[in-house]
Amino acid sequence: MFDVDEYLAVLGCDERPAADLESLRFLHKRHLMTIPYDSSWNAERGISIWRDVDIDVDAVFEAVVRGGRGGNCYELNGLFRALLDELGFRTAVLSAGIRQVDGTFGPDLEHVFNRVELAGRSWLVDVGFVGPSYVEPLLLSGDEQIQCGSRFRITEQDGYHVVERKGRTADWSPVYRFRPTPRQFHEWSGDQPALVEFAERLVGAGTVIRGRAFETGQMVLIGRRYLHVDDGAEAVRVLVDQDEHDRVVRTILRAES
What we know:
eight-stranded antiparallel beta sheet, Arylamine N-acetyltransferase fold
């Protein structure tokens, strides 16, 4: 069963925090540092990756928080949303299309994340994205925001809001695009042609994606392509050696430190 106090303890919080921005920032970053993203669990779902977007909170809590496995976007953000609701935050479900390697964006319902309203301001809350991206809540604003050496901004393009990131040396690059209007779970019901086609490409590629944040950055492993971002500085390598690849996987999944 979903247990707020046990969840908080896993995130390193000994008591229930207030529903304020300081607590949201702490919990958000701790979640990304503590519970990894791991798409390997999508393989058994086949083209029905988005079948359970409205998660069974108790079952996912048992598998992820208590059982220690990683999760995908809607599992991790669904659990975090349930935690925030219990703590008194005002949340809503958002969706996004992630920027692809070829520069296009995935379907609008591809990625599931959250919005939190605090003191009349909207914050993007996303603990289910592999990165590189924001590790603390991002204010829904056109202002530049700095986190762990990277700059973030939200622009408006073609009717969408676009989260953009800039590292220490690279130029601005889109992370994903979204509409700020809250989503309803029934929007994912049935066979959505755009999602089915997208899932077929993902399943066909067979690429496993894993990631975890650390205090000053993020580790992202897409297949054998390893991206390490520390204080805004990026290093990319292809892990040809199997032993090295396995060590990185274990580090991300925390099978070993």
